[in-house]
Amino acid sequence: MSYDDRRMEVTEAAWRVIIREGLDRASMRAIAQELGSSTGVVTHYFRDKDELTLFVLERVFEKVLKDMKACIKERQGIERLEQIVLSALPLEVNDIAGWQVWVAFLGYAIGRENLIQEHRKRYDLLQQIICQELADLQAAKLIRDDLDLTLEANALIALVDGIGTGVVINPEQFHAEQQRYLVQRHINTLLAESGTLTSKFQAVVNTLKQISTTSYYTDIF
To answer: How many Cα atoms within 13 Å fall on the side-chain side of residue 170?
Structure first.
């Protein structure tokens, strides 16, 4: 087995421990036990827990970027922005694990300035990506020309963070259609033609009216 393959095995073991026990309990020893090896094997590939944790986080972030690139092929306009945002969300059960790692890292990074700075780099990159998309939409007159693009990018990132965290805590409440609704409702407020629902947004609203156990959506629309 190559060095890189073995390193990835260590990473996957760390991933499983973090999801099962939390990052505070994901010691090098616990990861070694998960791997079925000695602590020395783990430290051969990663100097310490912080380095290993960052590597795991980077794998999560790489998957987000890969999903973004895949979902926007041949998509333009508002639909392209929607797909970029939705691709970062845990719409499928298999996506929740990545968010569990992401949320666990946030708590672990408190008091560790080097980890905070590393995490900030990833948020900055997401902000740049979304800002560029918004700028393109504004130039095409598809969203309002009075928008502060940096502020709106931050709002979308905050929305994604809130939804993702909500899924980790209460997946039943934030099911896939609910996630799509929240994203598309926000994006609808950015449109140049105010008060006009996109066809996709209206479809999501209609679906939610059918599956909701309360009259909340019916009352609004």
So the answer is: 7
